[in-house]
Design goal:
Among the domains are: about 5-80, Sandwich (Immunoglobulin-like); about 360-560, no CATH class. The chain is built from no helices and 45 strands. Strands 31, 32, 34, 35, 38, 40, 41, 44 and 45 form a 9-stranded mixed β-sheet that branches. A 7-stranded mixed β-sheet has the order 9-8-11-12-17-14-20, with no helix packed on it. The radius of gyration is 33 Å and the shape is globular. The N and C termini lie far apart (about 85 Å). The relative contact order is 0.07. The model has no long low-confidence stretch (mean pLDDT about 95).
Length: about 550
Amino acid sequence: NLGDTDITLDLALDTLDPEGAPAPEDFYTLADDQVTVPAGGTATVEVTAHTARGELYGVHSAYITATGEDGQRVRTAGAVEREVEKFDLTLDVTGRDGEAAEFYYGDLYDLTTGDWLDVHGTTRVPEGDYALALSVFDLDGEEGNVNGIDWLVVPGLTVTEDATVTADARDAAELVYASPDDAAEQLDLTAGFVLEKDDFGLNSGWSAAGLPEGFGTAQLGEPAEGTVLSGFAGTTWERDDIQYHGAYVHDEGFFTGLERRLKTEDLAEIVTHQGSPVPGDSGVLFTWAAELGFAAGTDQELPRTTRVFVETAHSDWGQELLTTASDGYFMALPRSYEAGETVERTFNVGVFGPVIDSEHGGLIRVGDTLYGALMPFSDSAGHLGGTPYDEDTTRTVLYRNGEEFAVFEDLLEFVAFELPADEAEYELVATVGRDTAVFPVTTEVTASFTFTSARGSEESVVLPASGVRYSPALALDSTAPAGESGFAVPFTVQGSAADNASSAEIAYSTDGGATWQEAAVSDGVATVDNPAAGGSVSLRAEVTDTDGNTSVLTIIDAYRTA
């Protein structure tokens, strides 16, 4: 009280339990419901937390408000955690040198709640079933660099009282996953385990290539009853434009050390072409085993071609290209391969354009809401992904019975149209551009779809929409031969008109869409006359499905000539 007279304040107490409801009655109590603060002095009122009351564990909060006769209010707060019973879990860890390890950390997983704790030394934990993974570091005594790591996995740990876990790095054995190419450099060495119990799953892994004294692993003890433990290992080796990828799954628990060598007769080859129309672009090619989920790669100049060899016995394989200057990504989902098989894959080469199929693009009505997706800058192979779009040149417009109904200055993927229930004729027009200072091809895409729609008996209805995918023989920089007459542009009709591909009418422009001329079409191939070097060809397709719904797709600067 900074004043010169005593002040009497009435006290009120509000409480909250861990779920935000009032705490149990009398969980908190005040020693007094009124306090007098002397002039120039202070006063204290005791607040008591009765943690034996109530059933919820967690933080219970108290808020005390003191109110004077003149309405002046002073507020303070406190809290107490009503903690579940816990026990001391002590880690007794020995390093490779036989001495007590100082540099280690533990990951403790609660197999009931899924909670994770970072543990070291002694930690208080609730009663329960756990898995523990210890990472023990062997350091260079002078420089402090990591010479080696041992990963010790305790898959079954039941805590019912104070307990000590004893772990010795000398029980680990080295993980070796060798290359068939002695000149290759190892980029990745991965080990991991999967622990499954009822509807709970735990997947944990380490990536530790290039350690001078190696990476060791060990399983200490057995899994708890009702849990299933498996292990996995993987590696990546690289030499110039050749990569080797290995994946191994160990169904009978985790492994204490492992020695494997990739054999050429066990590998499939993916000849992976990585393009870019953007000068000076670079990218990282990731090839990953579906059973592992880990991948390694290095940033490389684009375009380039990499011979990628994958071990086929234990896992499907997927790939992804991340581009740097163009900030793009293109992903091929995992698939199986046969040993000795050779396939080719091309990323990030035009014609870039929308995907309209049942899985990734098209239109859908859910109740009275219309949603859509274009994936407007998918590469010619139709890989998932794309590149950034230019917000200033992006617009989505819906027309209803010939009149403008709604407009969004955004990509179709990010908008939703609320529709009347009654039937009407609609046209959706979506335009999206790219920064022409960065991207020389597919600088703008416009897609329009006509359809009739009303609220139906089904909650979700796929609406008719069609698209055209082009696959001309372009160089990795998305250019075609300059001046070539009758250049072949194969195309595929997607969506609702896929079974009426003969309806496709293709036009092309060599002046950025200012004027158009009809292209000759035969058996899914359009032929165009390419302009001189440095020019561009734009493409426009109109397709109609058997119900009369029309889709028009226009791609400005679909490819350039060189």
